[in-house]
Design brief:
114 residues, alpha+beta, two-stranded antiparallel sheet, 72% helix, 15% strand
Length: 114
């Protein structure tokens, strides 16, 4: 609840410590120049906190991007390793089949000579 007592009522709200917090409240009739001055004062009073939050958010974003890039690089490396292993297994299987074929040829030649 904003707990307004008179109208018009204006509350400036910002996210602070993970919850919405009223950082300024203006009640009653206010001249435009006074309104601008008071809003400016409220903004300046909270500027340090806002800058800190923006920096933290940017750091979190950069960390997330870095983590994502590292994950992508890891997956690419993993896929390359898996492909390399697959090719190696295929080559070994082909070599085994060729050796088996050669062995069968030798056996067939020996049978013919007998």
């Amino acid at each position: 609840a904003l707990r307004e007592n008179t109208y018009p009522f204006l509350a400036m709200i910002m996210l602070k410590d993970r919850k919405m917090t009223v950082v300024g409240r203006l009640e009653g009739l206010i001249q435009p120049e006074d309104l601008i001055n008071q809003l400016t004062f409220i903004m300046e009073a909270n500027q340090t906190y806002l800058m800190s939050e923006r920096l933290e958010r940017e750091e979190r974003n950069q960390t997330q991007v870095l983590r994502q890039q590292q994950d992508e690089a890891y997956l690419a490396s993993l896929r390359a390793d898996q492909e390399k292993d697959r090719k190696k297994r295929e080559e070994q299987e082909q070599k085994r089949q060729e050796e088996e074929k050669a062995r069968q040829s030798v056996l067939a030649e020996e049978r013919r000579r007998r």
